Fold each of these.
Amino acid sequence: MSAVRKARLLIGKPGLDGHDRGAKYVAHVLRDAGFEVIYTGIRRSPEQIVDAAIQEDVAAIGLSLLSGAHNVLFPRVVELLRERQAEDIVVFGGGTIPPKDVPKLKALGVAAVFTPGTPAREIVETIDGLLGARQAV
Amino acid sequence: MERSLVQLVCDAKCDGPQSLRSAARLMSIMTDQPQRLAELLANSRDWPQPRLVLGITGAPGSGKSTLTDHLATEFRKRHPQQRLGIVAVDPSSPFTGGALLGDRVRMMRHATDPGVFIRSLASRGRLGGLALGAKGVVRVMGLIGCDVVIVETVGVGQSEVEIAQSADFVMVVLAPGHGDSVQMLKAGLMEAGDMFVVNKADRPGAAQLHQQLLSALQTSWMARLDLAHPASDDVHRAALPSQHPHGTKCDLPPDGRFENDADFPPIFLCSASNHEGVRELADAIEAITARKADDWRAGRHQQALEEIRQAVLEEVRRRVSEVIGANGASAVRTLPVLTGEVSLKNLVDEVMQESVSRASRADRQPGTQ
C-alpha cells in the first residue's frame, strides 16, 4: 500500500448526449494519475449522479456534457449536493462549453471547467490543487 | 479532524439526512484502514446483520454486473421493504495504483432507489487488505439495514477469490466464448463455488459449456466423495447424477439433496440481460437462504474472531512497514543484510523492537493521534 492514497472521484455524464469519448478519456487520464475513478456511463440524471457520489464517498464529481445543457445540469448537481448536505464534494466539468459560460458556472459553484484541448496534465494538477485546498480547510 | 468511528456509527444508524453519508464515510475508513475493522466489530455486537451475503465471481466479461443488477431488481420486487447492498470490486492498476470502477454503469437504474446501496471498491493489490476492508463494508451495510448484500468480484487473483470466499454463499458465473473459463476453473475457483451460472445462455456454445462444467463438477464431486469414504463404501457413488436434466434452467432437486456441503452444486442457465432464468435463480437463492441462514448466523461469531486475527496481522504489517519503509524506501536497513554485516533475524528483531517503542511513544502523546 502506497503511503499517499489518491482520492476517489466520480465521472458522470448528465443529460441526453451520448458522446462519452471525452468522459472516458478523462476517466482514463485520472486513473493513470493514480485516482480511483468511478464511471457512471451516459445519460444519467443529476439525482443519479449525486446519489452515486454520496454512496461512493467521493471527493469530487466530474461532469462531461456536449449537448449545451451545462448551464442547467451542472448547477443542478451543485444544488442537489447542497440539499443532501454534501457540499464539500467538489464539482468540476468539461466538454464543449463556450468560454463565456465558464465564469457563470464558476459563480454557481462549479470549481473548474475544462474545455476541449485542455492538456491532461493541467486537468490532473487542477484537481490535485482543488482537493488539496479542500483538505487544508 | 475526522469524526470518530463511534460518532459515524451513531449517525449512520439514525435515519437522518447524514445517515447515508456517514455510512459511506465508514466504508471509506474500513477500506483505507482495514485494521480498524476490529474497532468496528467491538461496537457492532448488537447491530443488525445481513441475512445473506452472496458472493458473485467469474471471469471478466461473463456478465457478473448485469446479473447482479437483475438479481437486485428481483430481490427489490420481492422484498420492497428491505434494503439491498451491493459491493462491486474492480481491479486497481498495479502500475499506478489508480482504478477505473465501471460496475455501476450496469446498475444505474438502482442509483436513485433508496433501498439499494451500491459501493465500488478498488482491489488495491495483494497487500491492500481488501478482503478485510470488504468485510468492514459489509458490516456497515448491515448497520444501515441491508438484508441481502451482494459482493461482486472478478474471479482472478487471490484477494478477489478470498473476498468471494468470505461470503455466505458463492456463485460462479461463466459465459460461452471465453476460452479461459476452463482455465479459471483449474485455478481453484471451482472449489469456491456453491452454485454455478452459465450466463449468456442465448449465445451459441452455452449448452456445450454447461456440459463441460457439469462433467468437471461431477469429477470433483466424485473425487471428494471417494476421499471421504472408506474403500468398501460405494453407496454414495450410486447417488451421483449420471444424467443431468439438461435444458432446464433450475436443477435444484425438490427433496433437499443439497443439504450438506458435500452436495453437488447446482448449475443454472441464464441470460441476465434478458432477465431470463433470473427469477429461477432468485428462487433457488431464497430457498437456500431459508434453509441455511441460521447456520450462517451461527458461523459469524467464528468469522468475527478470524476477522480480528486478520485485523491484528494487518495492523502489525502497517506498523512494521512504518519502520522498514514502503516500497523503494531507503536501503539503510536492508543493505547490511545484503552485504552480510547483519543477519536477517537481527534486522527483524530490531525492526520489531523499534515498532513497539514507537507505538508506546505515540501512546504517551495522545495529542498526536
Amino acid sequence: MLELTAVNRSFGERRVLKDVSFTVAGGRMTGFVGGNGAGKTTTMRVILGVLAADSGTITLDGAPLTAEQRTRFGYMPEERGLYPKMKVAEQIVYLGRLHGMSTSQARNNTEALLTRLGLGERMDDTLESLSLGNQQRAQIAAALVHDPEVLVLDEPFSGLDPIAVEVVLNVLKDFAATGAPVIFSSHQLDIVERLCDDLVVIADGEIRAHGSREGVRSAHTSPRFELQLDGDAGWLRAEPGVTVLDFDGGFAVFDVDSEATAQRVLQRAIATAPVLRFSPQVPSLSQIFKEVIQ
Amino acid sequence: MTTYSTPTLLPATWLVAEREIRMRLRSKSFMISTGILLLLVLGSIVAMSVFGANQSLPKIAAVGSAVSTVEATEAFDVTEAATVAEAEELVRDESVEAAVIPSEGAVGLTVIGLDEAPGSVVSLLSAAPLVEILEPSDQNPGVVYLVALAFGALFLSSALTFGSMISQSVVEEKQTRIVEILMATVPVKALLAGKIVGNSILAFAQITLVALAAGIGLLATGQNILLGEIGPSIVWFVVFFAAGFVMLAAMFAAAGALVSRQEDLNTTMTPITTLLMVPYFAVIFFYENPFVLAIMSYVPFSAPVGMPLRVFLGLAEWWEPILSLAILIASTLAVIALGSRIYENGLLRTGAPVKLKDALKKA
C-alpha cells in the first residue's frame, strides 16, 4: 500500500500541493481526478521522486519510500515521452535494461507486452512512424516492461480510441490483479467510473474526497429517489421528511431525510396506485466531481 | 513477480552512453560528416606534399660559351640557342624567362630579359655575399600555418559537432518528456555522465581516426620528416582534446537543459560556440606570436589548440604540456560540477529558457 501523508509542495510563492494525504491500496485501481492545474501531475511526480516534496511523507507498505524502491515503479508521464527516432521495441528494451533487467529478460517482456497491446507488427518501426494512439500503447509498455511494484499513470487513456481503451484497460486490470497498487489520473470521468475501485479527488492542491468509489459516491449522494405512479402523486408534497424536486402528474423526484422515510413513501405509493418505477437516483461521477471541487 | 534492482551508477552510465553511441552511429549525417572530415585532412596533406615538392627550374636560353656556365649552376632548365637572335626570339615568345649570352663584362655574361630585369636569374648568376642566420627556422612558414589551421579547425569542428549533439540529445529528452521516465529510473548523474561519456568516446574516436589518417597520409606522401616533427604534437592534441572535450560536453549538456525546445537551443549555445571560436581565430591570427600562443596554451579553453602548436614549434618546455593539462583537467572537473547542477535543475523546467542564475540555485 502506498500512502501519502501531509505532502506539501510549492513552486516559488505558489502552493501547488496543500497537505495532500491519501492511500493507494495494493491490488486495486485508484482513479485520481481533478481539474487542470489541480495538482495531479505534481502529486504523481512527487510520488515518483522526480520532484521533491517540501514536507510530508510517502510510505510503501508502512516504510518510508526509498529511491531504490522508486526505481521499481512504473511511470507514464502526462506528456508522453519516448525517443521519436528509436525503434519501438529497442527503446522499451533500453528502459527495461535501465531498470536492471538483462537484455534477454527485457526483450522477452517487451515482446510479450507489445504483442498484447496490439503492436506486435510494429515493434521494429520507429516511434515517430506510429499513430498517436499506437505511441500511447508503446508508452504503456514502457511503464510496464520491468514488472513494476507500483504503477503510476498520468492520463493513460487520453487519445485512445474505444477499442484501444479496452485493450489497455485489460492489461492494467490484469496488472492490478497481481496485487500491485495502481494509480491513474484521467479527465475522462466515465472511464474512471467504470475502471477504478478507489477514487481520489483533488482540487486546487487539496484532496477533496478519497475512498472507495462507492464510499465516495454515497458520501456525496443525498438520498434522492425517483417515483413513477400510474396515478397522481400529489400527496408526496404533504409527506413529512420529503422534499419534492420535480413533479409531473405521476412522476416525481424527491429527497428524503432518512431511509425509513423512503420506505414509508414506497409503501404508501403501492397502496395508492400501481408503481411503475421506484428507484434511488445515483449521481454520476461527473456530478459528484462538480459538487466536490466547488 | 520478479523484481529487478536498478543498476548502480556505473552500469547505468554505460547503458546511457551506449545508447548515445548507437544512435549516433546510426545517423547518416554523422557518418557523412566524419567521411568529409577525413577527406579534408587527407586532401590538405596531399596539398602540402604538392606545395612542398621542388618547383620546376626557371627556363632560360643560352648561347655559345654561356651554356656551360649556366649549366654548371644546375639552377636552370637550359635551352641551347645557336645565335643571340634566336635566343632573343625565345625570350620574346616567352618560351624562356631570359636568355644568357657571353659578353665582355666582369662576369662575362649578359642576361636578356623581355620587359624587366629577370631578378631571379640575375641573382642566381651573381656572386652573393655569405649569409649567416642566428636563429635558423627549419620550418616552412606555410606548413606551420597549415598545422595551426588544422589544429584550430579540427578542435572547432569536433567540439561544435559533438557539443551540439549533446545539447540536442538533452533537449530531445526534455522535449519528448522521456526525461521524466529516465529520472524516475536512474540517477540524474548517470544520465549526464552517460551523455558525456558516450559523446566523448565518439569525439575521441573521430579525432583519433583523423590523427591516424594524418599520420598515414604523411607517410604515404613521403613526408616522413614532417611526420617526425608533427607526430608528438598530434599526440598531445589528442590528449588535450580528450580532456577539453569533456569540459565542453558538460557545458553543452547544461545549455541543453536550460531550454525546452530545439528552437530555443541557440540562445543558450551561442555563448559556448562563441568561446569556441576564440581559440580558432586566435591561432589563425597569432600562430607566429609566441607570447599569445603561450597564453593560449594555458587557458583551458584554448589549450587543446595552443599547447600542441607550441610543442610543434618547439616553443614548449617538456613540463609545460603536463602543467597545462593539469590546469585543464582541474577546470574540467569544476565545470562538470557546475554543469551537472544546471543540468539537474533545468531538466524539469519547461517553457521559456531558464536563467542561468536560477539554474545554479539549489533545487
